Amino acid sequence: MSTLVVAEGVAKRYGTFSALSDVNFTITSGITGLLGANGTGKTTLLGMMLGLHQISGGSLMVLGVDPFTDGSKIRARMGYAPEHHTLPGDVRAADFVHHVAELHGLPPREARTRASDALWLVGLGEERFRPMGTMSTGQRQRVKLAQAIAHDPSLVLLDEPTDGLDPEQRDDMLHLIKTVSESFNISVILSSHLLDEVERICDAAVIIGDGRTLAAGTLDDLRGTGADVVVQVGSEAEAETLAQILSGRGVAHQIDGRTVIIRGDDESVFDTARDACASAAVSVHRLSRRRLSLEDVYLERAS
């Protein structure tokens, strides 16, 4: 698994305003989610990866080089689909994708062929000669994906690629991104504020908040197995009985129907859960470590 992007203490300031202050992560091949609330600096970070903005501090390497000093070299190997939908309305989709492919260094004839192939791939083969101003939001999002992959890049940056899409279109777009990545060996950095998008198709995630890295790693590593213990018993009445035992012992817990989550921060919580179940004489259907969701990780690190 090759290393694509390495950030060490990256900072970005605009005058006295600090957009990013301490960003650290390593991104490898596959699909990586760049997560964070709106306004946390995700788009700024993508711009620095493309070499469009110079970092104010730290170190940033993309595909083995400094993107700001080797911007043209980087952009020949990268694709980018911006968040905004401001595409030239009177230009045909095929002409637009062809033009962008030429900007990435492809000869005119090859660029036209690649543009057509890319538009067929994203499901716009029959629509490729339509002016983009006549297209729906979903179709324009597909055009943006097509122009990002037409020159066969090593890495594609997608900024909010499902913005403005209805649930069905969103599902289709996520499936298309995953198919493109896996079928053509193109790594993807997907910037989003939607946790479920990242959990559905990404192999890893970088979570940004307050100008710094809150968490970074593979989804399996991030979600991991928490110290909390989940106990599922035979009935809600048994769950209430178990909760009373835990309260009497001063053990933090949360009850949800027949399930009781027993809080803890070390290995002893498992013994605590076992002993409480025995004292409550409940029928235990499940007793296991709690597996964290990406939302759990985000909320925990953000707080």
Q: Could you explain the architecture of this structure?
A:
The two termini are 32 Å apart. This protein has two domains: 3-223, 3-Layer(aba) Sandwich (Rossmann fold); 229-291, Alpha-Beta Plaits (2-Layer Sandwich). It is of the alpha/beta class and 303 residues long. The protein has a six-stranded mixed beta sheet, with helices on both faces. It has a four-stranded antiparallel beta sheet with strand order 11-12-10-13, with helices on one face. Strands 2-1-4 form a three-stranded antiparallel beta sheet, covered by helices on one side. It has helices at 42-49, 71-76, 93-103, 108-121, 137-149, 167-184, 195-201, 219-223, 236-248, 268-280, 294-302, and strands spanning 3-14, 17-28, 31-35, 57-62, 78-81, 155-159, 187-192, 204-209, 212-218, 229-233, 253-256, 259-262, 284-289. A hairpin with a 2-residue loop joins β8 (204-209) and β9 (212-218).
